[in-house]
């Protein structure tokens, strides 16, 4: 046990340790645990093989002690240095009678005691007598005085922390709302998509019409260019020279007319 204690320390100061697990470390007595563990709150010594609690240290802040599956038959008075103890598990030990439990009267804060699989549980009216012996006790072997099962500590903590996952938390409604939002979003997206398609179609038709007009304009320009080219070619072929010829003929007629007048 001493080696296991040193291993669990992991280089820390004993006063810094709040939880210590020494399960299955194999020892018949308490070795290695000292009064230096002044802030220890949870200690587990399950299946160690303890036959006595002699030498158990004073642990002023210890609230939970696990001692199941050992060979303890008495000597609970050695736990008197743990005045704040609220949970004590002694199941699977060798406790035979109620006298062995009398030292627990000193633990005014003890709420949960487990003696399952001890011979003392076979005593007549065992539960009634144990509850009478320890007025502060709320649960014995997992059940209260009215045989109601102890509440799960984990569930209690979840409720206190607001982590209850019951159906009344409105999570289902939120999921439905999310689904409706998703559907609306899909519909709106599809509508936008269709509008875009219509706009693209309209734009395409406009572009097509403008292409036709542009083609017509191009054809007109080509026609005008052809006319200009035809005119230029005619001019080049001598049509432009006709005007000088006509003017020459006119000059000849005028000259002949002048000669006739003189005669």
UniProtKB/TrEMBL annotation:
Top-level taxonomic group: Eukaryota
Membrane spanning stretches? none
Claim: Mitochondrion is one of the keywords in the record: no
What stretch or stretches form a coiled coil here?
none
Q: Which InterPro entries match?
A: AN32, Leu-rich_rpt, LRR_dom_sf
Ranges of biased composition (kind: Basic and acidic residues): 226-249
Instruction: Give the GO molecular function terms.
Output: histone binding
Q: Where is the composition biased (Acidic residues)?
A: 149-187, 210-225
Q: Name one Pfam family in it.
A: LRR_9
GO annotation, cellular component aspect: nucleus
**Which UniProt keywords are listed?**
Leucine-rich repeat, Repeat
Decide whether keyword Repeat is in the record: yes
Q: Where is this region: Disordered?
A: 142-263
Q: Which family does it belong to?
A: Belongs to the ANP32 family.
PANTHER family noted in UniProt: ACIDIC LEUCINE-RICH NUCLEAR PHOSPHOPROTEIN 32, ACIDIC LEUCINE-RICH NUCLEAR PHOSPHOPROTEIN 32 FAMILY MEMBER A
Instruction: State what protein this is by name.
Output: Acidic leucine-rich nuclear phosphoprotein 32 family member A
Q: Which organism is it from?
A: Arctia plantaginis
